[in-house]
Amino acid sequence: MIEAGADVNAPSGEKGLTPLMLIAIHKKSVHREQHVIEGAEPGEIANLLIAKGAEVNATDTADETALMFAAANNNAAMIGLLIQAGADPLAVASDDRVALDIARENRHDEAEKALRLFTPRKKSEAQ
């Protein structure tokens, strides 16, 4: 569909989710059999979308980004991929949360660790 001209940033549904937001929810399959059944890994799809112009900092109707969706789903691999592609870990959703807040609230340790690697600390936290 992309090769036929589909818009990789086209929002869909009530919340206006982009394809990159939707793929950020999915984790890499653990079992080879599952990979064969499901097809390409989420990271492969995300890389393709980004290569074709997907905006890594696009927001939905609640100003949430693909990085926030990855944090909400404890998807550390996707967090690394998105940040390397230019995702802003300090982007703020309409509820005043950043991706790190979302990972913490959901007690997603892997996501929180990944985000801490890339999120600048506030002066108040550094002391």
Structural notes for this entry:
The protein has 127 residues and is mainly α. It has one domain (19-120): Serine Threonine Protein Phosphatase 5, Tetratricopeptide repeat. It is 47% helix and 0% strand. It contains 8 helices and no strands. It has helices at residues 19-24, 32-38, 42-51, 66-72, 76-84, 99-105, 109-118, 123-126. Helix 6 packs antiparallel against helix 7. 32% of the residues are buried. Mean pLDDT is 86; it is low at 123-127. Keywords: ANK repeat, Repeat. ANK repeats lie at residues 62-94.
Write a concise synopsis of the structure shown.
The chain is 47% helix and 0% strand.
General form: globular
Strand content: under 5%
* Measured distance between first and last alpha carbons: 51 Å
Subunit organisation of the chains: single chain
- CATH homologous superfamily name? Ankyrin repeat-containing domain
CATH architecture: Alpha Horseshoe
Order of helices and strands: HHHHHHHH
The secondary structure category is mainly alpha
| Domains (count) | 1
How many DSSP helices?
A: 8
**Fraction in helix:** 40-55%
Beta strand count: 0
Ranges with pLDDT <50 over ≥5 residues? 123-127
| Overall pLDDT metric | 86
Largest sheet: none
How big is the Rg? 15 Å
CATH topology name: Serine Threonine Protein Phosphatase 5, Tetratricopeptide repeat
CATH level-1 class: Mainly Alpha
SSE topology:
Elements: H1 19-24, H2 32-38, H3 42-51, H4 66-72, H5 76-84, H6 99-105, H7 109-118, H8 123-126
Helix pairs in contact: 3-5, 4-5, 4-6, 5-7, 6-7
